[in-house]
Write a structure and sequence with these properties.
single chain, alpha/beta, 3-stranded antiparallel beta sheet, binds adenosine monophosphate
């Protein structure tokens, strides 16, 4: 099954993806994680992407599209994947459709995790991420419960950047809800509830 996760930053896309990967073995393709790894490694892509990420802006389409195209070719992605954080605008969505069409491996669902902006701001301010494995936790996690790695607050989870990221989401990414509705693959879940309830609904919506 090939799934796109939609939703504002902090809606819970990463958490739902982690659960689906653990239970069903889909490949997890998070452009945010891939870009953060590129920044950490100091690669040319990482150097180009860093200033956009720190400012809460989208990284230029072509850089992200190249990254995703390459990742989609990997063996594990042929058995089903979850795209988390991609596409982020209409250009990326159209490019994705044509790429997957050419591969004969189209999307099955676009899952919108819907959460109110007020809740998002609280969640992102409290969010902590594992430097080693990318696990998403909160300020109560001193070390990563997954791998014991160091938990840190992403630069773009600082209050001054959060508001801007939400504006970018509203103006550039939210229109994809209509795009996927038009393709008759949109599913919606209320993400403003405990993780277990959200995940149970996700599985039911995806018939998993
Ligand atoms: P995320 O972890 O998905 O919140 O992404 C963190 C940051 O990486 C975003 O604020 C963007 O700067 C960049 N990014 C991630 N995915 C994309 C994408 N599909 N297009 C452009 N920039 C992206």
């Amino acid at each position: 099954m090939n799934i796109v996760l939609l939703g504002a930053p902090g809606a819970g896309k990463g958490t739902v993806a982690q659960e689906l990967v653990a239970d069903f073995g889909f490949a997890h393709i998070s452009t945010g994680d891939l870009l953060r790894a590129a920044v950490k490694s100091g690669s040319e892509l990482g150097v180009k992407a860093k200033s956009y990420m720190d400012a809460g802006e989208l990284v230029p389409d072509q850089l992200v599209i190249d990254l995703v195209k390459e990742r989609l070719q990997a063996d594990d992605a042929q058995k089903g994947f979850i795209l988390d954080g991609f596409p982020r605008n209409t250009v990326q969505a159209v490019t994705l459709d044509s790429e997957l069409g050419a591969m004969g491996n189209p999307l099955d669902a676009a899952l919108l995790i819907d959460v109110e902006p007020k809740v998002i701001i609280e969640r992102l301010s409290n969010r902590r991420t594992c430097r080693a494995c990318g696990f998403t936790g909160n300020a109560s996690h001193e070390v990563c419960p997954n791998c014991g790695g160091e938990m840190y607050q992403r630069d773009d989870d600082k209050p001054e950047t959060i508001r801007h990221r939400l504006d970018v989401y509203e103006s550039q990414t939210a229109p994809l809800v209509e795009y996927y509705k038009g393709h008759s693959i949109l599913k919606e879940v209320n993400g403003d509830r405990p993780v277990d309830e959200v995940y149970a609904d996700v599985k039911a919506l995806l018939a998993l």
